[in-house]
Specification:
With 55 residues, the protein is mainly α. Helix content is 42%, strand content 0%.
Length: 55
């Protein structure tokens, strides 16, 4: 069964992950977002008790 032979695929996978983690990830993390988040004030929800029509 050729699927069980990890010879070419294991090295390709490891090289891909190393390339991503060492070269591409710091480049993508260095980008600054164009729209900074706005600090919004939290609104409080008023809980009004329900007046039931039956006693």
């Amino acid at each position: 069964m050729p699927q069980l032979n990890p010879n070419p695929w294991l090295s390709i996978m490891l090289m891909t992950w190393l390339t991503f983690s060492l070269l591409l990830q710091p480049k993508t993390l260095s980008f600054t977002p164009t729209n900074n988040p706005i600090n919004k004030t939290l609104t409080t929800i008023k809980n009004n008790p329900w007046t039931w029509p039956w006693p």
